[in-house]
Amino acid sequence: MLRLIQNEWMKIFRRPGTYVMLGLLLIMTTVAGAFIKYQESGGTVPDNSEWKRGLQTQNESYQKQLDEMGEMAPREMKEQYQREIAINEYRIENDISPNQDYSIWGFVTDTSQLIEFAGLFTIIIAGGIVASEFNWGTIKLLLIRPIKRGKILASKYITVVLFGLMLLFILFAYSALLGALLFGMPEEAAPYLNYYNGAVTEQSMAIHLIIYYGLKSITMLMLATMAFMISAVFRNSSLAIGLSLFLMFMGGQVTRLISMKYDWAKYSLFANTDLLQYFEGVPMVQGMTLGFSIMMIFIYFLFFQALAFYVFKKRDVAA
Amino acid sequence: MDTLVEIQDVTKVIKGRTIINSVSFEVKKGEVFGFLGPNGAGKTTTIRMMVGLIGITSGDIKILGSSIKTDFEKAISHIGAIVENPEMYKFLSGYQNLVHYARMSRGVTKEKIEETVELVGLTDRIHDKVRTYSLGMRQRLGLAQCLLHDPKILILDEPTNGLDPAGIREIRDHLRMLARERDMAVIVSSHLLSEMEMMCDRIGIIQNGKLIDVQHISDFVQGEEKIYEIEVDHPEKASSLLKGAQPDIPIQLTGNSVLLPLVRDDIPNLIKNFVQADIKIFAVREVTKTLEERFLEVTEYKEDAGNA
């Protein structure tokens, strides 16, 4: 198995396209760093003395709006405001200023947007890894080895996951390094304030970011799995990559639109892949829980894999 | 055990159409078996079934006694194959391609790879990208790929397709050498008859998904009797002399020679008769039927029989 993964890895890294992807990821991070650094040098550190009063006024205005709208307030807005109020109160009580100097952690948080690109590249690899063998005709030589087809497909999937994890690691490590170089380490580590189930807790920034990365990458992993499935079933890398990218950019929006009117939107894959909604935001459809989402993700995952393996094993390799 | 490959009553049905219709044959150790048939007759389909690329509707294929259906890993480990063109990873070097396939079989050492490269004569170019290879070199790399794990059986689909005469000769020599010296069973398919004639010990003819004949190449080409061409100064005179002795004999006259079917032992007698009749003989030679003529004869005959 290890040697099969080694093979797949070799086939990925002997192609120049892979290095273009890695290069793009690094360049984008660097450009983001340069841009933020340039902006920062123009601005001043905000005045720290008045922040408590500021937060208080903010809370009052939130509360007022909530009271005024009463039952009319949309659920999402209500929960969002409640969260803000709780965190602001916590800050005032524990004397944690929201105005932190921009540091390495701020930069890593900002560049985590680039996970989407890591996802995109992983989808490209996942969409091609089976379909390309058919296009190249090499599948014929690949499947006449004393190895079961299921094992070959599994090695390809594991390679995709490893590739995705590698991109994430590179992104995280590089932006942490660049952040530390450009913006420095914070003088005193400000904790991240986590609001979950009505309670505010403190969390170390580094741990928060790692969890944040992990949760964000679930979307990416699921889409890569889908691209992989399409690749194995339809032997068409363009279809696999195109469809997965389309869903990556549109899936969330469309599901959100549907969820405004229909409850069944919660069974959509895209309503569930963003687990961050349970920690940092508001669930897309009321009544969705973390457990429900994890289960849905699991069901979709099994479905994709079962389909990919079933078709790949049964397929007659002709022409 | 001398029989390495057994094809047992294999049938393949795709979407209600019978592509292969109960084909059976065996291939023995040390022989080159040719699989001959016009395009679309089912050669490639049969070969794909033998290497497990496509499923078998009914019947079974046994490789050294292991079924390709139920014991795939064991059966396939005895086979080295090229199915159609030897497609390799073009962005890898020849060597990396071989390493790739070596990793997928048990116990292929670095030395074994080097040795195989040497055998197919690619030592100079093995570290270049496959993209830069000529078709002949790709074919040789393909051969190297299927020899890596020392298979007992070699299956090549149209191995000489697109090669120049030198390349064809090279492949042919390789195959004969492998069959003879390593006692491998070699199965090749082709629609090029002249090539099969030089390469194979036995051939099976497939047409419309049915195996219509399996014969030794010499029997196949010759049929029952041999034809001799005798070059003389007066063909008409020779012809009438022969007709006088045997009125039924089918004699052909061409320019300055006569052609007739003969048994070897009759030749001295015939020459004596000619000499006594004052006919000058310049040459007596055996005319071998080409495989092509024979092939068309067989397939046409079977077709007629099938239609009647």
From TrEMBL, chain A:
MF term (GO), any: ABC-type transporter activity
Pfam families given in the database record: ABC2_membrane_2 (PF12679)
Domain of life: Bacteria
Segments passing through the bilayer: 20-38, 117-136, 157-185, 205-227, 239-259, 290-312
Keyword annotations of the record: Membrane, Transmembrane, Transmembrane helix
Gene Ontology, cellular component aspect: plasma membrane
Protein name: ABC-2 type transport system permease protein
Organism: Cytobacillus oceanisediminis
Automatic annotation (TrEMBL), chain B:
PANTHER family attached to this UniProt entry: ABC TRANSPORTER, ATP-BINDING PROTEIN
Keyword Hydrolase part of the UniProt annotation: no
Record family assignment: Belongs to the ABC transporter superfamily.
GO molecular function, one term: ATP hydrolysis activity
Alphabetized SMART domains for the sequence: AAA
Name of this chain's protein: ABC-2 type transport system ATP-binding protein
Highest taxon in the source lineage: Bacteria
InterPro entries, per database record: AAA+_ATPase, ABC_transporter-like_ATP-bd, ABC_transporter-like_CS, P-loop_NTPase
ABC transporter domain: residues covered: 5-233
Keyword Zinc listed: no
Entry keywords, A to Z: ATP-binding, Nucleotide-binding, Transport
